[in-house]
Design a protein that fits this description.
The protein is about 35% helix and about 20% strand. The longest helix has 16 residues. The strands form two sheets. It has a six-stranded mixed beta sheet, with helices on both faces. Strands 2-1-4-5 form a four-stranded antiparallel beta sheet, with helices on one face. The protein is globular, with a radius of gyration of 18 Å. The protein has a single domain, classed as P-loop containing nucleotide triphosphate hydrolases (Rossmann fold), CATH 3.40.50.300. The protein has about 280 residues and is α/β, with parallel strands linked by helices. Bound molecules: adenosine-5'-diphosphate and magnesium ion. Magnesium ion (MG) binds next to helix 3.
């Protein structure tokens, strides 16, 4: 556990000292399974102890906490149906929480609509239907900028610099593109709002390993421009390799939380979620 940043100086993480208030603490389970109080002191975006489900249906999330800090990449992994997408939707305001909070840069945004969250700086690429297939690549990017009233050309150039193939195909219908290129359109579209934080739900779904590596490289590049990234990934091992922080979710709960390195080294996580 010596590599656990929360272990060595727990005194500093005691929110009762540094930031009074009952709801600032989260209680994920650290690698090894021991439940400890772990605050997320530097979180830029945090879904804190989120409990909720769809409509009047049963709870899908059970006191689930996920967060991303400034300058970091946080990754959520876990089996199919664990509630990873549900957690992302909850963070984005597409789900009413029965308990818990969502905070962005310290502000409680739990009650805001998705549109208002976009205006606050959240960019979200959902797992499904994340582009308009009958529109051109460029029209998709323009749609992404829908909340902006200023000149979007510079941002569009930045997206084209990040994904040069999209510049080439700017006038093609997005539906004609390959899987990896469509995901680039989806990420590019989210970047058009100039988000302060980017949420990606399975950005590498259905692409080849080579394309996956390329997409991860581009995601790292985006994060280096100062945009914190919270993403769900089914390629758990590769994603944890680039993750500053990782969350393993099981049945709507935090099962393991740690740095990407810690989770990759944890024998239980390896056996249960990384194929040994
Ligand atoms: N729109 C929905 N309405 C009702 N239940 C849903 C909906 N979307 C997902 N679920 C249920 O929520 C649970 C978690 O799903 P999901 O968040 O998509 O998991 P994951 O992304 O980890 O694969 C599943 O049991 C799924 O059937
Ligand atoms: Mg999902």
């Amino acid at each position: 556990m010596s590599g656990n940043p929360y272990q060595d100086d727990r005194g500093n993480k005691d929110r009762t000292i540094t930031r009074p208030g009952p709801e600032r603490e989260s209680y994920p389970v650290e690698p090894g399974g021991e439940a400890v109080k772990v605050a997320e002191p530097g979180a830029f975006l945090i879904g804190e102890e989120m409990t909720g489900g769809y409509g009047k249906g049963p709870d899908i999330l059970h006191a689930c906490t996920v967060a991303v800090e400034r300058g970091e990449i946080a990754v959520i992994v876990g089996p199919n149906g664990a509630g990873k997408s549900t957690a992302m939707k909850a963070l984005f305001g597409m789900l009413d929480l029965r308990q818990g909070h969502v905070r962005l840069d310290g502000e409680d945004i739990t009650a805001l609509s998705p549109q208002d969250r976009v205006a606050k700086g959240m960019g979200f690429v959902p797992q499904n239907n994340n582009i308009f297939t009958s529109m051109t690549v460029e029209e998709n990017l323009e749609m992404g900028a829908f909340i902006r009233r200023d000149d979007i050309t510079e941002t569009m150039e930045q997206v084209y610099d990040l994904f040069p193939v999209l510049r080439e195909k700017r006038n093609q219908a997005a539906g004609e593109l390959s899987g990896g290129q469509r995901q680039q359109v989806a990420v590019g579209r989210a970047l058009m709002t100039k988000p302060k934080v980017l949420m990606l739900d399975e950005p590498t779904a259905g692409v080849s390993p080579i394309v996956m590596d390329e997409l991860f490289d581009r995601i790292i590049e985006v994060s280096r421009t100062g945009i914190p990234i919270l993403m769900v990934e089914q390629n758990a091992r590769q994603a944890l390799e680039i993750a500053d922080k990782g969350y393993v979710m099981v049945q709507g709960r935090n099962a393991y939380t740690g740095t990407g390195k810690e989770l990759l080294a944890d024998p239980d996580v390896r056996r249960s979620f990384l194929g040994g």
